[in-house]
Amino acid sequence: MDTSNLMEQILSSDNLNRAYLQVVRNKGAEGVDGMKYTELKEHLELNGEIIKEQLRTRKYKPQPVLRVEIPKPNGSVRNLGVPTVTDRFVQQAIAQVLTPIFEEQFHDHSYGFRPNRSAHQAIYTALDIMNSGNDWIVDIDLEKFFDTVNHDKLMTIIGRTIKDGDVISIIRKFLVSGIMIDDEFEDSVVGTPQGGNLSPLLANIMLNELDKEMEKRGLNFVRYADDCIIMVGSEMAANRVMRNISRFIEEKLSLKVNVTKSKVDKPQGIKYLGFGFFLDDKTLQYKAMPHAKAVESFKSKMRSITCRSWGVSNSYKVERLNQLIKGWINYFKIGSMRNICEKLDRNIRYRLRMCIWKHWKTPRKRAKNLMKLGVSRRLAYSTAYAGHHVAKVCKSLAVSLAINNKRLASFGLVSMLDYYNEKSVTC
Fold first, then answer.
1. Could you tell me which of 9, 31, 93, 358 has the fewest CB atoms within 10 Å of its CB?
2. Which three-class secondary structure state does DSSP give residue 138?
3. pLDDT for 328-347, tens place per residue?
4. If you write DSSP's letter for every residue of 146-186 in order, what string do you get?
């Protein structure tokens, strides 16, 4: 394919219209200039032709990205770089033209940030490989990958395919546009900040070099962006692969392997894309399930929503719980998790009963509501005036009878188990 005149494809009306619609659909926060995505249309109506001419003549100057720190569960942070909405528009227009070109080169076992590919497909492929006798896992963790990409190496790789100097020029400008941290400008000497519309494609272009190397060595692997696992048949082979591939990553790609997080283990000992793995006793096949850390993360969010001191209505809490439940199960639905759902359902209902009990406030109101919900007068009053802590009284017979599962369902609460049974596609 001739790639020497791609800028005109990027600047075509059809491509720019699609880029605009995608940026608006993505919404997103403002960059350093404070422009909202809702203001993009008016901005382009006034300045669209100027932007196009600047891109044609290599005079377009991207603005620095705004550094945003996203807390991780382990206490560290993930650095995001938020480009201005105009830069997001330009990046999206470039990505739309370059993606089909590079898609032809990408490996079939690469699943992250690619059209019509998903984390679920990566897990299915990993299980197929594990269950074909490759049950020693080389789990390589790339340390702050998006922050450490070598610009020169990346541009050299892109230059092998893209021959349009104008496109090469604007991509490098985006890479070196800088970062704004607390109103202080910082040069971006390395890295491709997470948050830009072009960054996922650039990451895949760089890591496709790793895919090609692993394929050349005949290795079975699955990669989702910078999350990569290699599956081999023995511990000795796994340790050898760990040494050799780590050396390739650091020496040939100038990336850093996180030695403390990288490891060789059986499937039961790893976490991949939020999933854990176990050996099914009946089939003697490996299956997926939500990893213990993913379950703990869910519990933490659920406890935050059902905090009794959070001054919102219980109906709002149910609405938020339902969003959390559906989103979590839609992601983990390919895993085996019926027992997990049953336990979490019990926990959610118990905590919601505590919220309702506290909302009733006084012993008199509590007794009245218990009787209204079918509890005998004697049991209602003895429970309401027992003086026990909320946590203890909400385990009592009276509260369980009054605020039973059926009533919570009628209140709108989604059952995790029911929703999982409806959505599950276990592998």
1. 358
2. strand
3. 999 999 999 999 999 999 99
4. HHH--HHHHHHHHHHH---HHHHHHHHHHHTS-EEETTEEE
